[in-house]
Amino acid sequence: MASDPPLLEALLVVSCFVFRHCSGVDTVTATRPIKDGSTGDVVVSKDGKFTLGFFGHRGYRYVGIWYNYEISHPGRERSRNRSTVCWVANRDDPLRDFSGVMKISEDGNLVVLDGRRRVLWSTNVSLTVLKANSTSATLQDSGDLVLSAERGDDIESGRYVTRVILWARYDHPMQSGRQGIGLKAQDFLFKRWKSTLVILFIIVGLPLLVFCVYSWRRRKIKRKEIESCRELLSSSIELEENGKCPELPLFDLSTLMTATNNFSLESKLGEGGFGSVYKGTLSNGQEIAVKRLSGRSRQGGEEFKNEVMVIAKLQHRNLVKILGYCSHREEKMLIYEYMRNKSLDSFIFDSSRRVLLDWRRRFNIIMGIARGVLYLHEDSRLMIIHRDLKASNILLDNQMNPKISDFGMARIFCANQTQANTNRIVGTYGYMSPEYAMDGLFSVKSDVFSFGILMLEIVSGRRNSHCYQDAESSTSVNLSSQAWELWKGGRGLELLDSSIVGPCPADEIQRCIQVGLLCVQEDASERPTMSSVVFMLSNETSMPSPQQPPAFSIRKAASKADCSTWEKGTYSVNDVTMSEVEAR
C-alpha cells in the first residue's frame, strides 16, 4: 500500500461516509464487536460527532475514526453531511473484502481481524495482571479511542472498583509507538478555517510553487545545454573507450615506421614539450608530419586526446589539417599534412630567412591567423580557446599561407560560457595574458592578447619575451613596451623590421601596430574581439586608440649582460611551452 496516498496526513475529505448511527453505543466490548458489512455496525461518541467503524478507499477496507459535520450553503434549504477521516487503524494492512471485524480479543486487546482471523492491527498491551474479560474500548467526545479495564475486588457487595487506562489514541501522533493522529473537532470544523487555509496557500504557497518550477526549469535548461555540448563532443569527436576515434583514419604503427625510416634522426623535424615531430612519406607519395608523443609523459597522453577531440571536426584553410592518428599500446601519434616551410618562427626570427617575408606576405600571414582564430572563437560548431598562440605554432604551407597548429592546450567552451579558470597555467611566457598568468582566468580575450603579441612580432621581426636596449636612452624594454613608446611618440614605423624589402604601406603598418596595442591591453574588457580585429585590419576606418601601456610593460636600467641593442635586434630566449596540462 506504499503507492497509495497517505490517508491521515492528507486529511482526505470524503463525502461517501454517511452511516446510520446507533444511538448511545460508544463502546466496543467482548460481546459488542464491530463487523464490516453490517448496516449501522459502528461505534458513535455520545455527542454523535465522532464515529468508529469500517470504510472503503480505492477498493480496500479500513477501520478508522471520522468526524461528522454538516455544510450549509446560502440559498439551499438542506445542508450536506460531510465526514473527515481522523485516524486509521490498519492503514498498512487493509482488507480486500467485507470480512473484517474489530473486537476485544481473548487477551483483552482491541484487535482488527480479517475473515481468516488474522490480526491486522492490535493495541498490543500486556494484560497478565488484569481480567481480560473486563476490558472495553470507548470512543470519547474528544475523538480519542481509549482502551480500559476494570480492576478491584471480587464481585461482592461494597466492592472497590476502578478503571485503568491501558491504551489511548491521544492528540499527538505515535503515542506509545502506535500510529495515529488525534485531531480535535475545532482543527477542521469551520469553513472559515478552511477558507483561511486556501487563501494562505494562494498567497504564500502558489508563488513559492511558481518560483520552484521556474528554478527547476532553469536548471533543466542549463543541464540540457551542457549535455548537448557533451553529446556533441562524445558523439562527434571524442575518443571511444577502446581508444579509437571514428572520425579519423587509424594508421598502423608499421606504416608510420616505414614512412619515417623507423623515426630516424634524419627524419626528425623538431622536438617539443610532449615529444618529437618527424617527416614521413607514405607509400602513395604523400608527405606527412608525424607527431610522436613521449610515452613517459602523462601530459603527452592528455595532449593526444585533447588535440584529437578539438581538431578532428574543424575545417578551415588557416588551421592545420589532421590526417589521422595511431594508438598502439604506449605509442600515441598524430599525423598532419606536411608543411614544407615549417613554422613562422623559423622565418621572422632567423636573420637569413626573414628577408623572404616582405610586407605583403607578412600582412597576409597576419590576416590568415586572425581569420583562423576568429573561426575558433565564433564560426566553428564549438567555441575553442587555443591558449598557446605563438610563432612556433603557426605553420606555413608552400604558398606561405599560415596554419594554426598544436591544439593540445585548447579548451572547448559551451555556447553560453564566456570564461573559465584553472589552477594549472599552461602556455608560453611572453604570450600569456595577465589575467591568465596571474589568476588562471582565460577566455577568448586570452587568445586576443596572444594574437596581439604575435602581430607585433611579425611586424618587427623580434621576440616579445626578450628585452632590448633603446638606442636613445639608458633603459631596456620588451617588444610591447617599445611598440607603445614609438606609437605614442608618432614614430610607429620605426618598429618595422629593417630587413623588409619592397613597398611598405605606412597606413597598413600603423594600423597593424595600433590593433596590436589594443589587443595587449591589461584589462581584458578593453581588448577587441577577433571579429573586430579582422574588421579593423581589413578596412580603412577609424579605430579606438589604446589608452594605457600594454600589460607586462618592462622598463629597467639597461645591462649588456641581458639585453641587446634595438638596432641589432639580437635575442636569446627559452621559448618553450609550459607543459603542465590540466584535466579537461
TrEMBL record:
Keywords: ATP-binding, Cell membrane, Disulfide bond, Glycoprotein, Kinase, Membrane, Nucleotide-binding, Serine/threonine-protein kinase, Signal, Transferase, Transmembrane, Transmembrane helix. Residues 28-160 form the Bulb-type lectin domain. SMART domains: B_lectin, S_TKc. It is a single-pass type I membrane protein. The chain crosses the membrane at residues 197-216. InterPro entries: Bulb-type_lectin_dom, Bulb-type_lectin_dom_sf, Kinase-like_dom_sf, Prot_kinase_dom, Protein_kinase_ATP_BS, Ser-Thr/Tyr_kinase_cat_dom, Ser/Thr_kinase_AS. ATP binds at residue 291. It holds the Pfam family PK_Tyr_Ser-Thr. This is non-specific serine/threonine protein kinase.
